[in-house]
Amino acid sequence: MPAVIRATIPLLLATLFVATGCVTAPWVPTDGAYTSPVDRYAIDLPQGWMRWTQGEDGRLVVTRDGVLLQVIMIERFRVGEPLKHTKKQLARGMMPQEAAEVVLDNFSSNKDISGLEVKDNRPTTISGKPGFWTVFTYKTKDELKLKVVYCGVLDGEWFYGIRYSAAQRHYFDKDLKTFETVLRSFKLKTNA
């Protein structure tokens, strides 16, 4: 075998592993209590579900039957930094309903979804702090209708979003109580 080909094979294999996701963190079973090593919160996750943490931003993803059927997601954004789909920004001292408007605008500006309809938008308490609870529906590019509960809370320079998204037809109602239990267990580890 020529030296050039021998030298190229490891590079091709490494590229293949990276491209197919073999170097990402694996899905692991949830075992109840979970503390984020980066994002300074603790939460009780439902038994029998699987979790995955996205390395670069610490986003926690939890599902039982697959992320297109139902998913609970915890994400954290630095206040004042741009969100992916909107020019609006979260700001320190914002009222919870103002933060909800920014989050909803971020979703409605996403070109990959259509027909966003807000069903509910109200204040709530998250980890002892004023937050918001909003419910909305939308369609994916594949015409799957999803229903979402998105709850958010500002904590100093950080915004925490706790989201439950599921196929509206069967899964949403089936796992809503599970999400509500998870949300009640969410505890911030700092008060910046």
Would you give an account of this structure?
By secondary structure, this protein is an alpha+beta fold. The protein has a single domain, classed as Protein Transport Mog1p, Chain A (3-Layer(aba) Sandwich). Helix content is 23%, strand content 39%. The protein is built from three helices and eleven strands. The strands form two sheets. Strands 1-4-5-6-10-9-8-7 form an eight-stranded antiparallel sheet, with helices on both faces. It has a three-stranded antiparallel sheet with strand order 2-3-11. Strand 8 (129-140) and strand 9 form a beta hairpin. The protein is globular. Residues 4-23 have low confidence and may be disordered.
- Secondary structure class reads alpha+beta
Beta-strand fraction estimate: 35-45%
CATH class: Alpha Beta
Q: Name the helix and strand elements from N-terminus to C-terminus, one letter apiece.
A: HEEEEEEHEEEEHE
Q: How many separate domains make up the residues?
A: 1
Overall form: globular
CATH architecture: 3-Layer(aba) Sandwich
What do we call the CATH homologous superfamily?
A: Mog1/PsbP, alpha/beta/alpha sandwich
The strands making up the biggest β-sheet line up spatially as 1-4-5-6-10-9-8-7
pLDDT averaged residue by residue: 87
End-to-end separation in angstroms reads 61 Å
Largest sheet composition? 8 strands, antiparallel
Helix coverage percent: 10-25%
